User: What shape does this take?
Amino acid sequence: MTEERVTAPSESEVADSEDAKAGLAMVAARVGRCTDEEQAAFWEAVGRCFGGGKPPDLAGISSSANE
Assistant: This one.
């Protein structure tokens, strides 16, 4: 019997999934309702948890399906 190797999907494959797109739209909708100060605090906390970096550009992400 031969074993099939199962490889994990790439980051871009995961990002292209419908679940990832829906999740990103939900985050964009929620962040969009925050004040500038709340958004800054959110991204600061995310940066502390995930090693910093520039926040993603959430402009133009459709959130109408999740409101």
Remarks:
- The chain is about 50% helix and 0% strand.
- The radius of gyration is 16 Å.
